[in-house]
Amino acid sequence: MFTVPTLPAPNALADPAFLASAAGESWVGALADNFPHTRYWRDRSDCWSLKSLNALAARIIDARYDGNAIEDAMEAEFPPAEPYQTWYHEVAPQLRSCLHEADLDEDSEAIDAIRYAWEDCAAERDDSSVADLFASYDRCELLFRFSAERWLDDALVFSHRPWPQASELAITANLQFALNNLGYTIGEFRKACGNRHPADRALPRHTRRRRAPIISHEQLAEIIDNACSTSFLFCLYAIVPIPDLIALDLSRPVTFEKCWVATMDPINGTFFDVLANGPVTVNPEDGRFLSGGHLRWSPENICGLHTPYYHAGIEN
Asked: Which of 18, 38, 92, 291 places its Cα 20 to 30 Å from the Cα of 165?
């Protein structure tokens, strides 16, 4: 390792045809074995910030929804080590004596030919992946918003008053959709909180609860009354391992082993949560995933959360 393999002939590098020969290919292969290039080191001592991992999570989620390669999306956020770094810092210094003996010190074409041959062989031998950078302690903020709308500003529910209050929420299709996912119908919500506002327009008919209630009526009123904004989203929240997120198939049901139900204003930056009463499984038609990296202010950025409290697992 880290020594130039013996040439089959003293001046072999001076022969332009050498690298294309069987002996040349064998020598270049040995050179790549002795000077491997690793795009992503598995052993590291650094620590990624929550903000950087949120940005990575946003790229992963977008790639999943758009049908793009996850690896490419992750590499755009965490670029790999380039081969030229290994070449100039590791390989070239050791090759100098061989190049000098062959009078090739100044022959840029010959040096480039060796370099490109080494790069090809080293790339074939490198099985590292950007996913190798992350372990279970590398976590991101993951949210699932209960809305059928594509864009955040189209997904909001809002209050008739200059403050958020369950009895004053506008009865809209967005509210109906979110409540159904929390385990309630519009009728049950009206009865519990005394909301008497008429629907702003005809609501979708024959809708029903998608699951048993995941928070109580009291908790529902609590997250609405403490939303700190007159317009907001209902969502699930947890801080999950990046490897868990990488493994998710968003076209299939996804289960939060533990999560928090929250109201969040993604435009003005407000967030308030309560713990759900158990694991929660969401289907693709229930809404859309996003991470703190999709938001100008992530929940942790808004509230200064004690992040270990929100640690949870997620899986299909």
From this structure: 291
